[in-house]
Fold:
Amino acid sequence: MKPKEKRDEVWSSFQKALAVALGKNKLHDAQMLYYKMAIFVDEENKNPFIYIKESSRIRLLDFKNQDIKKVRILSTGGCSNCDKQNGKSYSIDEAISKMPLPNKNCSHHLNPENKKYSFCRCVFVPKT
Structure:
């Protein structure tokens, strides 16, 4: 199989799995799929931002379904821009509305070959 055909097959598998997860309201599965899609596009030297953002949004929706009221940002080992957000708290609705993650100013690169696009690793965690 040619490399492009293989990539297309992998992407198609992501899309099918995502449709199943969302159709069954398996938000954690959908969140992880979006994150894996972000890694996949990053490895292709493309911008992973929209997939990281959707992963973060789905994570928040999952928290909301679990009746978690507040979240905070965790930026352990992030870049200096992300470290500035570390510990900031939001209500679930405020976080969904503002979507501060992924950090638009992140300077971390997951793939050393993809210096054009950052890969924010910050996450929302429940605030206790």
User: Anything to note?
Assistant: The chain has one domain: 3-126. The beta strands are 70-74, 89-91, 123-126. Residues 3-126 form one domain. The chain has a mean pLDDT of 94.
